[in-house]
Each structure stands twice: as C-alpha cells, then as structure tokens.
Design goal:
Enzyme class: isomerase
Number of helices: 8
Shape: globular
Order of helices and strands: EHEHEHEHEEHEHEHH
Pathway: Carbohydrate degradation; pentose phosphate pathway; D-xylulose 5-phosphate from D-ribulose 5-phosphate (non-oxidative stage): step 1/1
Largest sheet: 8 strands, parallel
Family: Belongs to the ribulose-phosphate 3-epimerase family.
EC number: 5.1.3.1
GO molecular function: D-ribulose-phosphate 3-epimerase activity; metal ion binding
Distance between the termini: 20 Å
Number of strands: 8
C-alpha cells in the first residue's frame, strides 16, 4: 500500500535569537511548526559554526513532543550519530558529499533509532541517490549553498525535486534554502512535501499565518 504523503513545515532556527532558543522554538511549535529543523555546522564542511548535541539535548528536555531533525553540515557525519541519538533527535540528515560510505552511515543512523535523511548540495547530481534511496526515509534538496541563512533561492534545483517525485512517488522530499511565501508554490508544484523555512518564518510578523500559507500551498499540490 502506497504511503500517503503529507505537507510538513519545519522552521529552521538558524536565524532565531539563539540566546533564547527555547522560547523561540516553543513559539514556532505553538504557531504550527510540524517539526524543528536544527542546523548543525562544524566550521569545516561549511565555513560557519552553530551548535552541537549538548544544546540539542538541553532543548529536548524542555520540548518533548515535537520532531527534531538535525541537518548535519559536518565533515564526519558518522561521528555525531550516537551523541545526537542520545540528545533525542528523531531524524538525522547528513550530506552525501561528506560521507566516505553513504550506505554505512545510513545503516548506523537507523541502528541508533533515528530516521535517515540524505542531503544534496546544489552541485551534486540528483541521480546519485539511486544507490541508497532504499536506505533513506527522506531526501533533502538544498536550494542554496549550505552554511548560511538568508540566501537567494535557487529555482534551478527544482529539476532535482521533479526527478525525485517522478521516480520515487512515495518519498518524503524536503527543500531547504530561501523558501518562503514567494517561492513555496514553485517547490510544491515540483513535488516537495517537506519545507524548511528559516528567515521567512522567523522574521514574519505573523508566524502562524506564514506557516499556514506554506502548508496550504503544499497540500494543494499534493491533492491535485
């Protein structure tokens, strides 16, 4: 029986006020976030640093019932699987470009009790996923270069989303980077059902309305 895809909106907290991370995160959940997207950067794979598993673990102690996904923009994704599982992460996304053995990392994530997400940089061909898509729960198509928030959306990446949806109709497909009310229809029409939105949601004067707008667009295309 085919899996029924649903629209899910996961705000990225990268652009939030990290000095009040719990308050910012709790507000996003109250305003309709389906999950929280936590960007973990090591200053090596990408030229920026954010936070690690100790911060995630502290946040999980206060926010217990919402899905946490960590977007691991790190050089050694296998190194942080156990610490993130211990911190209470539900879905662990890593970049195929950073792994020597993608299949082994996927298996290790699953064994640690987390869902598996694989991410593709803008310059990575989409068909590389054919080798391990059966080991993943979702594929993340980056619509900006990883490492910084607030970048301009790359519409060219929608060809990857379309290809994935055509070839894997039941797959959860996520997009991340420059996604907001002005670009959501492009993503939804291409076939993305999981939406990461940082700046557009965090800086919105009405987060609840913005999240609702994003979700309505995705739902519309999923049901057509």
């Amino acid at each position: 029986m085919a899996k029924k895809l649903t629209a899910k909106i996961g705000p990225s907290i990268l652009n939030a006020d990290l000095s009040i991370l719990y308050e910012e995160s709790a507000k996003l959940v109250t305003n309709g976030a389906d999950y929280l997207h936590l960007d973990v950067m090591d200053g090596n794979f990408v030229p920026n640093m954010t936070f690690g598993h100790p911060v995630v673990k502290c946040l999980r102690r206060k926010i217990k019932d919402v899905v946490f996904e960590t977007h691991m923009m790190v050089t050694k994704p296998d190194q942080w699987i156990e610490p993130m599982a211990d911190a209470g992460v539900d879905r662990y996304i890593f970049h195929v470009e950073s792994a020597d053995d993608v299949k082994a990392v996927c298996k290790k994530i699953r064994e640690a009790g987390m869902k598996v997400g694989v991410a593709l940089n803008p310059g990575t061909p989409v068909d590389v996923v054919t080798e391990y898509v059966d080991l993943a729960d979702m594929v993340l198509v980056m619509t900006v270069e990883p490492g910084f928030g607030g970048q301009k959306f790359m519409e060219s990446q929608m060809t990857k989303v379309k290809w994935l949806r055509e070839n894997y109709p039941d797959l959860d497909i996520e997009v991340d980077g420059g996604v907001g009310p002005s670009t959501i229809d492009i993503c939804a029409k291409a076939g993305a059902n999981m939406i990461v939105s940082g700046t557009a949601v965090i800086n919105s004067p009405d987060q609840k309305k913005t999240i609702s707008t994003l979700k309505e667009s995705v739902t519309k295309y999923l049901t057509n």
